[in-house]
Amino acid sequence: MTIEEDLPELRTIGVLGAGQMGGGIAQVAAQAGFDVRLADASLELATKGRDKIGAQLGRLVDRAKMSEDMRDGILSRIQPIASSADFAGCDLVIEAATENFDLKVKLFKAIDDALAPEAFLASNTSSISVTKLAAATSRPSQVIGMHFMNPPPLMKLVEIVRAVQTSPRTYEVIKAAALKMGKVVVTSKDVPGFMVNRMLIPMLCEACFALQEGLGTPEDIDTGAKLGLNHPMGPFELADLIGLDTMLYIAEVLQREFGDDKYRPPTMLRNLVAAGWYGKKTGRGFYTYDDKGNKTGRAVQT
Ligand code: NAD
Fold first, then answer.
1. Is the bond leading into 151 cis (omega within 30 degrees of zero)?
2. How many domains does the chain have?
3. Of 41, 117, 142, 179, which alpha carbon lies 20 to 30 A from 109's?
4. 21 and 61 share a domain?
């Protein structure tokens, strides 16, 4: 029997972390027909995450881009849960909690304890070693990186990251799940930042250095990238969308793990994070945002 013929059918997917990425991943999985269990640090936060998905789908219904039946079907497949223990019975859990190594190791151990031996465990981490996360579990060959892009319902790509221990069968199972979610898959080795953030984060940091040096305003630098490079978003708009806390963490991982100061995070980025200005999710980063996430002005002084 070939690996492809031997693949188990995944039915129930757990998502840990109901923030912007976890919520989006839960939506994409439910849209693809999987039963989804969504967890965060509490049942209240998980329920909030599901309500946010409901509000986003509601906007699609209002614009006649989705039927009410379809929205109700998707939401009925997403069950908020109180803790990792409720992942018991899931075929796969995708962890999408805050980008922090110690936190992810703790969460991976808790999920590992809850799951049946044959279940799979994936991380949506942007930069953390999947090999180290796998080593913290009792099932290292069934652990993999499943790096969705932001926002998951709109972005076509999933970057699959093979840890040193990831088995070929695990890779095929996760690739099939990503394809079922309608995604295009690329595969990366487990190196800091993988492929996409290895290219992106130095570019975003460079835009920040340019701003610090006074090359131009944030609006001019963003317009330069959009109209000069044909990027759909400028670097500061994208950094605010990603979350400046996440961006800083990734830049620190790249600098530390490669031992190369070309990846050093700009002081301005450190300061914005120290101020609690994380971007769109806190309403303030390089720019300011209203409750609906629409840009309302500039936050940084130049
Ligand atoms: P976020 O801040 O929107 O959400 C993180 C969630 O993790 C929050 O809801 C938080 O309550 C939850 N959390 C924190 N501690 C927890 C705990 N102890 N138990 C359970 N949940 C806990 O961040 P995000 O942007 O959704 O990022 C999540 C992950 O996705 C990170 O690993 C990040 O690197 C990765 N990622 C982010 C992007 C992006 O553009 N933001 C893109 C790809 C991957």
1. yes
2. 2
3. 179
4. yes
Shared domain check, 207 and 182: no
For the stretch 232-246, pLDDT in tens is: 999 999 999 999 999
40 Cβ below 6 A of ligand 1: yes
**Atom 29 of ligand 1, nearest CA residue:** 96
Query: Which atom of ligand 1 is closest in space to residue 21's alpha carbon?
Result: 26
Per-residue pLDDT, 292: 87
CA 226 to chain centre: 23
Residue labelled with tokens 């759909």: 232
**Higher local confidence (pLDDT), 302 or 10:** 10
Q: What is the pLDDT of residues 25-50, one digit of tens each?
A: 999 999 999 999 999 999 999 999 99
Q: How far apart are CA 46 and CA 124, in angstroms?
A: 17
Say yes or no: 213 and 235 in one domain. yes
pLDDT > 80? residue 53: yes
Among 165, 189, 213, give the residue marking a domain's end.
189
- The terminus-to-terminus CA distance of the chain in angstroms comes to 63
For the Cβ of 150 lying below 6 angstroms from any atom of ligand 1, the answer is: yes
Q: What's the predicted TM-score (pTM) here?
A: 0.95
For residue 1, what pLDDT is reported?
66
Alpha-carbon gap, residue 25 to 40, rounded angstroms: 13
Same-domain pairing of 149 and 60: yes
